[in-house]
Design the sequence.
C-alpha cells in the first residue's frame, strides 16, 4: 500500500506538520517552565516572610512527617537502606561511643560531690511529685546544675521545663517527634546536637538533650527579651498563637522549686546554727 504524507499549506508554501511527540514535548516544556516559575515564586515568598515560613515548617503535619522519618531512621528502615549514625553504635577505635546511645563524654555524672541541702530538698520534692526514684531524680538535678552553670541558664528553670515536658522521663516521646527530658525535636535542632558531638549523638541522651534544651531556651529568651516570651517560643506558641498557659505552668513550677531549695538551705542553716550553739554551750560549761 502506498503511503502519503499529509502537509500543511502556509502562505502558499508546503510545510511538514510537527509530530505528535514534538507537540507533547513542547507542551511539557511549557508546563515545566510555568511550574518552575511557581516553585521559585513560592520559595521567594517563604524566604521573605519569616512568619509564613515558620507556620509551614513547624506545622503539625510537617512535624508528624519528621517524627515518622526519625522513627524509620532509628529502627534502621530508612529509605535506601542507608545506615544513619544517631549515636547508637558501640565504641570504635577512637572510643567516641559507649554503651549504646551515649557517647563517653556525655555518659556519666560526677556524684562524688554531695548535693547541697537545697538540692537534696529539690530531689525529694520532685521524686514525690513525679513518682520517680530519688536516685534517678538526683542524677537529673545534678545534671541541671552542671548544664545550667555551663550554658548560663537557671538550673531551676531547666528542672521546671523537664517537669512540664517529660515528667522526668528521659525516654519520653511525643506524637510529633519530640524526644527526651526537655522534649527536643531532633530534626529541627539537629545542628545543635551535631555541634555537641558530630555524627555521634542521641536526643535520648539526658545530658545532650538537656544541653540542647538549655541552648534553645537561652536563645529564645535572648531573642524575645524575656523568659516568659522565650517559653512561648519554646512551646511553639510564637507560631501557632495559643500557648495553653505553658509559660505560666513552667514559671509556677520553677517558683515552687526555688521555694523548696530555699527551705532546704534555711533548714540546713538553722541546724548548723544549733550545732554551733550546742558546742559553744558545752565549751562554756566545761
Sequence:
Amino acid at each position: 500500500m502506498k503511503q502519503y504524507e499529509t502537509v500543511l499549506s502556509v502562505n502558499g508554501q508546503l510545510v511538514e506538520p510537527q509530530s505528535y511527540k514534538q507537540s507533547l514535548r513542547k507542551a511539557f516544556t511549557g508546563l515545566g517552565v510555568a511550574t518552575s516559575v511557581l516553585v521559585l515564586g513560592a520559595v521567594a515568598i517563604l524566604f521573605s516572610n519569616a512568619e509564613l515560613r515558620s507556620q509551614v515548617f513547624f506545622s503539625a503535619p510537617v512535624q508528624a512527617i519528621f517524627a515518622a522519618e526519625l522513627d524509620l531512621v532509628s529502627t534502621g528502615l530508612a529509605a535506601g537502606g542507608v545506615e544513619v549514625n544517631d549515636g547508637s553504635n558501640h565504641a570504635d577505635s577512637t572510643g567516641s561511643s559507649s554503651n549504646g546511645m551515649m557517647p563517653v563524654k556525655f555518659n556519666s555524672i560526677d556524684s562524688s560531690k554531695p548535693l547541697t541541702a537545697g538540692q537534696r530538698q529539690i530531689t525529694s520534692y520532685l521524686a514525690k511529685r513525679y513518682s520517680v526514684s530519688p536516685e534517678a531524680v538526683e542524677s537529673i538535678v545534678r545534671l541541671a546544675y552542671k548544664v545550667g552553670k555551663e550554658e548560663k541558664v537557671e538550673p531551676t528553670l531547666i528542672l521546671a521545663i523537664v517537669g512540664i515536658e517529660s515528667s522526668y522521663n528521659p525516654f519520653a516521646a511525643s506524637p510529633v517527634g519530640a524526644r527526651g527530658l526537655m522534649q527536643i525535636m531532633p530534626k529541627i535542632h539537629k545542628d545543635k546536637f551535631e555541634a555537641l558531638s558530630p555524627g555521634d549523638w542521641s536526643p535520648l541522651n539526658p545530658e545532650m538533650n538537656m544541653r540542647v534544651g538549655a541552648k534553645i531556651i537561652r536563645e529564645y529568651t535572648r531573642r524575645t527579651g524575656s523568659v516568659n516570651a522565650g517559653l512561648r517560643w519554646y512551646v511553639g506558641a510564637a507560631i501557632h498563637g495559643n500557648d495553653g498557659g505553658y509559660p505560666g505552668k513552667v514559671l509556677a513550677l520553677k517558683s515552687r522549686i526555688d521555694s523548696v531549695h530555699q527551705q532546704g538551705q534555711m533548714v540546713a542553716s538553722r541546724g548548723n546554727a544549733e550545732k554551733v550553739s550546742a558546742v559553744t554551750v558545752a565549751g562554756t560549761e566545761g
